[in-house]
Design brief:
Length: 226
């Protein structure tokens, strides 16, 4: 089962991706991890990518996509993979599709977590971290995990915020790319939806309502992946 997973920052995509990974025993592949691995191993692609990163530039698709292809050809991907965080725009979707077809690698499923932009922003800015255990879920905008005043809902510990969670400018910038239906991530999603229509449902498109709680969303997701 080869999967692309889309969802805006704040949608809980990372949590749901981990659930899919554990359920189907497939690797959860992220481009940031691929970059770090290639750089640490000193591969030819890693050296090229490091040059761009060191200059503060985006790594071009001509490097990123071959890295992704190399990764999904590894032994642990023989039963499938879940790619998260790429493609981020329409051009990348087109180039990835072309590269997969050239390598005769089938894309089976495209998952899209659907969430209103303002709700996604609120969820990011509403996150609170327990100083005793960061894994204790607290969010002032989600009723199911709303903290007890200014204390952790699980253990009563003090809560703090992450500075990047409160950076509205950075959040808006990321979301502007994601929610752009002409050239951004939404355009990439629509590209695969159109591809599915042309190919009689291949890849399968799985849409998820990101508004309910983690358990409800995961139950819906796993039900649609059966």
């Amino acid at each position: 089962m080869n999967i692309l997973f889309f969802g805006p920052n704040g949608s809980g995509k990372g949590t749901q991706g981990a659930i899919v990974k554990d359920k189907f025993k497939i690797p959860h592949i992220e481009t940031g991890v691929i970059f770090r691995d290639n750089i640490s191993r000193g591969t030819a692609l890693g050296k090229e990518a490091k040059g761009y990163i060191d200059r503060g530039e985006l790594v071009p698709d001509s490097i990123t996509i071959p890295m992704i292809l190399d990764r999904i050809k590894e032994g642990d991907c023989k039963n499938g993979w879940l790619l998260d965080g790429f493609p981020r725009n329409l051009v990348q979707a087109q180039e990835l599709d072309k590269a997969l077809k050239k390598e005769k690698i089938r894309l089976d499923i495209v998952i899209e977590m659907v969430l209103d932009r303002q709700i996604a922003k609120n969820r990011i800015m509403g996150r609170r971290l327990c100083v005793k255990d960061n894994n204790h879920p607290n969010n002032i905008f989600i009723d199911a995990i709303k903290p007890k005043g200014d204390k952790c809902r699980v253990c009563g510990g003090e809560l703090k915020t992450r500075s990047d969670d409160q950076d509205e400018g950075a959040i808006d910038k990321r979301h502007s790319i994601y929610y752009d239906p002409k050239t951004g991530t939404m355009a990439a999603i629509n590209y695969f939806k159109d591809l599915s229509k042309k190919n009689k449902g291949n890849p399968k498109i799985v849409g998820l309502d990101g508004r309910p709680g983690v358990k409800e969303v995961s139950n819906e997701l796993l039900g649609k992946l059966k």
